Amino acid sequence: MSRSAPLDIFFKQSRKECIFLNTLLIYHSEHHGNTEKVAQVIASALNAKLVSSRDIDFDDVSTYDLVGIGSGVYYGHFHQDLFRFIDRLPSQIRRKAFVFSTTGSKSYGERANSSAKLKLKDKGFDVVGEFTCLGFDTALSTEGINRGRPSAEDLNAAETFARSLMGK
Ligand SMILES: Cc1cc2nc3c(=O)[nH]c(=O)nc-3n(C[C@H](O)[C@H](O)[C@H](O)COP(=O)(O)O)c2cc1C
Questions:
Q1: Whose CA is nearest to atom 10 of ligand 1?
Q2: pTM of the complete model
Q3: Is 158's C-beta closer than 6 angstroms to any atom of ligand 1?
Q4: Where are the domains of the chain?
C-alpha cells in the first residue's frame, strides 16, 4: 500500500485538518517479541515508519510530526536504550508523542508508561496518548504467565488506540 493511501482515506472521512502527517514508531522488544507485535499493529494503523531501538537514526526524528515510543517493561521501566535515546534528543517544540508497552502486570505497564511520558514531556513533547497490554512473561518462571498475550483482542485494542490518535 502506498504511504499516502490511508491519509487520503482519512481526509475523505473527516473535514478536520489531519495533524499527523508523518509518524515514527521506535520500539524495544527483546523478551518474546510481544511489544514488536503491538508496534506492528500501531505502525500499520498510522502508516508509520517502524524502527527498532537498535536502529535509531537521530536525524530521522526531526522529520516526523508524531513519535511513538514502545517497550516491554523491564524491571519496572521502558528499556534503558529508549531512555538514553530520549535523553540525547534535543529539546522539542510542537512535536507530539505517545507511549505504549507490554508487561507482565498491568499496574507495572501503567507505571512504566507514566515514567516514559514524564521523560518525553521534560523534553518538550506534547504527549497525546498511551497504551499498555499484557505480554507473555517468563521472567520469573519457565512456565510463565500471560500465555497467548498479546491476544487478538489486545491487538484490536492497540489498533483502536492508534486510530484514536488520528483525531487528536
Ligand atoms: C528481564 C525482565 C524484566 C521484567 N520486568 C518486569 C517488571 O518489572 N514488571 C512487569 O510487569 N513485567 C516485567 N517483565 C515482563 C515483560 O514486561 C513482558 O514479558 C513484556 O511483554 C516483554 O516484552 P517483549 O517480549 O517485547 O520484550 C520483565 C521481563 C524480563 C525479561
A1: 104
A2: 0.90
A3: no
A4: 20-166
